[in-house]
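Task: encode each sequence below as structure tokens.

Item 1
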Amino acid sequence: MAGNLIRNLQTSQPRGTPFDSATLRGFGVSSALAHDYVRAGWLVRLGWGVFMFTGDKLARDPSLKFLASRIPGLHVAAKTALIWQGFQQNLAHKETLCLWGNPQAVLPEWFQACFPARYSAPRLFESALSAGFGLAPMPESPDGPRVSAPDRARMVGVRRPVPSCTRTW
């Protein structure tokens, strides 16, 4: 029975993707059984209630989507969003990801170890603007993490709400 549970989990979860205790429970894996799988070498515990398969290398986009499910409004922003959209030609060997979200949050150590990142949560826009305005996955990965549109990504230097366009000449 336990062998079927881990086999079902391995065939349904994409490789390189972190998953949590709730996902394990959905496959009938209790906390005690998850602990046994970690001890037996089937799973690696990344952090409190977060796992991956032994031998896997975490993939960036699924890891970002996993974090976005836990941190409201999390998205790729600023310089990283511009780089991903082709607005910079000279790329650093290991670029620090710029991530933004709604609440103050701390990125987990397991994520930072694989993907150096900087997280910010200042409010940039008036509350009348929808939270998801200017955020969408990249066209080549429609199921990927949300990324700031270039105009929104350039707004990073602004540390106050952006007024509506009522400028007079």
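Item 2
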Amino acid sequence: MKKAPSTEEQIDSIVDLALAEDLGYGDITTEALIPPHLEGRASILAKERGILAGIEVARKVFLRVDPSLRMEILLQDGAKVKPGDTIAIISGRASSILKAERTALNFLQRLSGIASQTARYLARVRGSGASITDTRKTTPGLRVLEKLAVRLGGGRNHRQHLGDGILIKDNHLLALRALGMNLKDIVAKAKQNAPQGMSVEVEVDTAQEAAEAAEAGADIIMLDNMSPEEMRRVVSSLPAQVKTEASGGITLANLRQAAASGVNFISVGALTHSAKALDISLEFDPQAFKLAGQ
């Protein structure tokens, strides 16, 4: 069996791909104008409030472009930032800083936006007992980073990939019901074939389906697009050992109502697919430029 790459290896590959996309044909502007021996110092600055995520990825970008660059990180991933905060300082070849700038900021802004979005959702459910989780609605190729950003914002990760848990969704049910299987048969088959210790989750649309799934032995029941009132009735009717997850149509406006229903988890695709990038910039110190050796 092929060994899965480590998280660090996955992130390295993502950084390499991003740099190849932006720098694969060189930086014509910088190479035409900036002397190779000109050194400088630049600061990465927060321009709005939020949660920082991706500074270690940004470090990888700068050092991939030029290992001789020096980067002092002043605020760590997960830190709260506000306008004017200096996140990091990069020193070395000005041309190298310019070549890495956009890719590094793209990661920082995107991931900090996700962490900040997650923190906003988390604040709405604080004290309810419900956990906020992400989904697989991530940017293709960036899942490992976007799910890291969710954790930095205080959220939890749902499945990392399709091999990370059994979740029987509506289209699985449609296909299997076409073969004459009922919900009890489907859950039994999933539990029989699941790796040892892996839970089985089932998506349901009605209180009746939730009851059938629980009776069949489902470990987690996903309540899809139910109203808060309906979720409350379902949760109160299920055995205590069965966990519940609210999913579909969850927004900041109705989040507190969903949490008050008593569900254990609330999955929110918007954490990743609709997060607004956090405003972060890189600015050179105009007094710090010098030619190497001078």
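Check on item 2: The chain has two domains: 7-120+277-291, 165-268. The mean pLDDT is 96.
End of task.
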